[in-house]
């Protein structure tokens, strides 16, 4: 079942008198429960595409369809509701509120959506267990390591049971060992929660945790690569594709 799709999406920005083509005719789709990595050189359109997928920005032309809803057919308020209820976000720098505990940060999307947090306590407890932070629920961000803060951010992204989670360089601010733990957690969420994850990354090892990798260059999708399950071989293939894109 297709949970996320773009149809001939283009995005132009005006910088003074210069028109910048950030994306040009992108056709892209993701199936429910799939883990997809997006890669490409700096300026290839990766972050622009992620913002469009999450309804944070609108395409110049084309359609973005999230959980069966075509965003261009909706008003701003309706897009906000789709984003709030169907899309979870994981950022490189965690974006936790420093005055809230881990548990309160996880519950925040429920409060923003006007839900009674008590009705979701069992899900919050399950997510704290999933990310290995049951014993840190009452700790504030400055009492947690970077990896623990990112685990809180992942649980926060999952708490509303969104159709899709978008991750923008989720391991970019972490050491290699902690980054691997976060990627294994995202991989596990696809398997155990049937979560759909789309991740932007520049790191071949991070991308190897995905089911497939999509390569962008100059605002266009230029290649796809399905992972074999052999991480060493997958990293080699990804690096090979990236090297070919630079020639």
CATH architecture descriptor name: 3-Layer(aba) Sandwich
- Mean pLDDT rating: 90
Q: In total, how many domains does the architecture comprise?
A: 1
Report the CATH superfamily.
P-loop containing nucleotide triphosphate hydrolases
What is the CATH C-level name?
A: Alpha Beta
The termini sit apart by 36 Å
- Quaternary state, please? single chain
Number of helices: 8
Shape: globular
Rg (CA only):
18 Å
CATH topology: Rossmann fold
User: Structural class of the secondary elements?
Assistant: alpha/beta
Helix content range of the residues, please? 25-40%
Strand content: 25-35%
Largest sheet: 6 strands, mixed
Task: Tell me how many strands there are.
Answer: 10
What does this protein structure show overall?
With 247 residues, the protein is of the alpha/beta class. The protein has one domain (2-245): 3-Layer(aba) Sandwich (Rossmann fold), CATH 3.40.50.300. 36% of the residues lie in helices and 27% in strands. A 6-stranded mixed β-sheet has the order 6-7-8-3-9-10, with helices on both faces. Strands 2-1-4-5 form a 4-stranded antiparallel β-sheet. A hairpin with a 2-residue loop joins strand 9 (212-217) and strand 10 (220-226). Helix 3 packs parallel to helix 5 and helix 5 (146-158) runs parallel beside helix 6 (176-193).
């Amino acid at each position: 079942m297709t949970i996320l799709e773009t149809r001939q999406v283009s995005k132009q920005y005006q910088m003074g008198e210069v028109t910048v083509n950030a994306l040009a005719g992108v056709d892209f789709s993701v199936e429910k429960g799939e883990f997809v990595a997006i890669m490409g050189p700096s300026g290839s359109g990766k972050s622009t595409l992620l913002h469009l997928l999450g309804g944070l920005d609108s395409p110049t032309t084309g359609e973005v369809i999230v959980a069966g809803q075509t965003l261009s057919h909706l008003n701003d308020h309706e897009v906000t509701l789709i984003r709030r209820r169907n899309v979870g976000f994981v950022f490189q720098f965690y974006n936790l509120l420093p005055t809230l505990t881990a548990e309160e940060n996880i519950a925040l999307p429920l409060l923003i959506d006007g839900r009674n947090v008590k009705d979701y306590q069992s899900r919050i407890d399950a997510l704290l267990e999933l990310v290995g932070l049951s014993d840190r629920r009452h700790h504030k961000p400055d009492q947690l390591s970077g990896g623990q803060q990112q685990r809180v951010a992942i649980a926060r992204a999952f708490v509303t049971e969104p159709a899709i989670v978008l991750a923008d360089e989720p391991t970019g601010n972490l050491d290699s060992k902690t980054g691997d733990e976060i990627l294994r957690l995202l991989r596990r969420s696809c398997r155990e929660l049937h979560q759909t994850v789309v991740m932007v990354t520049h790191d071949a090892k991070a991308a190897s945790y995905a089911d497939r990798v999509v390569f962008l260059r100059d605002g266009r999708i230029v290649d796809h690569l399905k992972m074999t399950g052999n991480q060493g071989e997958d990293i080699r293939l990804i690096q090979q594709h990236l090297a070919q894109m630079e020639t």
